[in-house]
Design brief:
This protein has 120 residues and is mainly alpha-helical. It has one domain. It is built from 7 helices and no strands. The longest helix is centred in the middle third of the chain and has 21 residues. It is globular. The relative contact order is 0.17. It comes from Leifsonia soli.
């Protein structure tokens, strides 16, 4: 069972999808963004980030919006580099999967809990 991602005051809903993906590409790298979104091609996030370009399917869009929310929370709390490392490191709160793997698996609730516990 999956849960819907929460939205904060700095919600990704105030940005367009291309801006969200562009920010994630800059922060995490397009390969990581493709992985968490479930895209098969690592160049797909570059296309999603283009204004007027293609948009991700709903499943990928939910993952991207959720990832952006967690990125924003963690970047503010622990800094950009530590936040980037959090996304790619094995996490004991996620059964030693990475947050990227958990997001790709639509495990939003437990991933959000892991991020919140680190953010304090």
């Amino acid at each position: 069972m999956t849960s819907n991602p929460p939205h904060t005051k700095t919600s990704s809903l105030h940005l367009g999808m291309s801006a969200v993906v562009g920010s994630l590409n800059d922060a995490l790298g397009a390969s990581t963004v493709a992985d968490l979104a479930g895209a098969k091609d690592s160049k797909t996030p570059f296309r999603w980030a283009q204004t007027g370009g293609p948009t991700p399917r709903d499943t990928s869009a939910r993952r991207l919006l959720f990832a952006y929310e967690q990125w924003t929370l963690l970047r503010t709390a622990i800094g950009a580099e530590a936040a980037r490392l959090w996304f790619i490191a094995a996490n004991p709160a996620l059964s030693y999967e990475t947050p990227v793997e958990a997001i790709r698996g639509d495990r939003f609730k437990e991933t959000a809990k892991a991020a919140a516990s680190l953010a304090g």
